[in-house]
Amino acid sequence: MTTLEYRGYIGSVTFDAEAEILHGTVVNTRDVITFQGESVSEIKQAFKESVEDYLAFCAELGEEPEKPMSGKFNVRISPLLHAQAVAMAQSQEISLNTLVERAINDVVNRSASVDAQSAQDHQPNTDEECDSDREIYDVAIHWSGTRLAKASSVMTSMQQSLEVRVTN
After folding, report:
1. Tens digits of per-residue pLDDT, 97-118?
2. How far apart (Å, rounded) are the C-alpha atoms in residues 125 and 23?
3. Which residues pair with 3 in a beta bridge?
4. Are residues 26 and 50 in contact, defined by beta-carbon separation less than 8 angstroms?
5. Residue 61 vs residues 28, 45, 160: alpha-carbon distances, Å
6. Are strands 21-26 and 9-16 parallel, antiparallel or unpaired?
7. Helix residue spans in the chain (DSSP H)
8. Could you count the other beta carbons within 10 Å of the beta carbon of residue 84?
9. Half-sphere exposure of 56 toward its Cβ, with a 13 Å CA cutoff?
10. Please, are residues 155 and 140 in contact by the beta-carbon 8 Å criterion?
């Protein structure tokens, strides 16, 4: 999958082998914006034109276009998970935002890797990176006093990531 960016909007491009065209969708807005082309230059141009058409259409309707996603969102989690995440972030001397971003990135990358059936993407670059991740996980489990089976979804996600790293 390839991405394009124009005026803050991000387009995802895929190849349709059956139709022999490139097809794209703007991914960082809830409104549906699509585009297609037969070549790289056509798909790039079609993407820009689709964004411009969307903005013009919204103007004609007198409505504000949906802004591209800003990278900010609210998450509702249990107080226990919140405390666990804060403790984990503090133990690594990073912000809570950085911890959450890394966890989401890890899950998204793992999901994309599973889709592509490529476990190589999850191997740590160094033994030190793997040890650092294991320490984060161990601190959180120790701090929470819970059994692994009752760990939160974030903790489970981190465990799965570590298992992939350790077994590869």
Report:
1. 999 999 998 888 887 666 555 4
2. 34
3. 12
4. yes
5. 21, 24, 48
6. antiparallel
7. 40-61, 79-91, 96-116, 127-144, 153-167
8. 22
9. 6
10. yes
What H or E segment, with its residue span, contains residue 10? strand 9-16
Chain CA centroid to CA 124, Å = 18
Q: What angle do CA 132, 101, 44 make, to 5 degrees?
A: 125
Find the radius of gyration of the CA atoms of the chain: 21
pTM: 0.50
Q: What is the DSSP letter of 145?
A: T
DSSP 30: S
pLDDT tens figures, 120-161: 444 445 554 444 444 444 433 333 333 333 334 555 555 555
| DSSP-assigned states of every residue in 105-129 | HHHHHHHHHHHHT-GGGGS-SSHHH
Q: Which amino acid, residue 114?
A: V
